[in-house]
Specification:
The protein is built from 6 helices and no strands. By secondary structure, the protein is an all-alpha fold. Helix 1 packs across helix 3. The longest helix has 27 residues.
Length: 155
Amino acid sequence: NKSDLFGALCERATTPMRAMLDRLAQEPGKTPLESLKAETLYMLTHLAEDRSLQSVFEVLLLRGDSGGELADVIAREEKNSAECRARLENILQAAIRTGELPRQIDTQMAAIALKSFICGLMRQWLQTRDFDLAKLAPAMLDIFFAGLVQSRLKS
């Protein structure tokens, strides 16, 4: 069954990311923002180097198939996506508590921005492959995270 096979592939591809977010949300440590940045870099580098992971995300981010055979799997991944955003928000709140982020930052807005940035970057790279994701990801993440630190987004 195509749906079962794709569901298993999605689980294999996304479980490590969810586990990383769970770990950081539950035990943010002394530098949750730096840890999140490092884990995000690992995830992007892994995507750039792993062809099977690329195939899964091509379907998730580019093809959709929301009305087809994979509708249940796509719906489950959308639910996981919402949970991911909530975990990101918890990590960002921890970064406020440790002083890595300004107190006035709106963590919901920042989590939406971060998730959108990462998904957009992944989608752009998967569509075009016209830049070296593994090489450019560190600088791109530096730009994004520096913007968060300097942010004036108020809740």
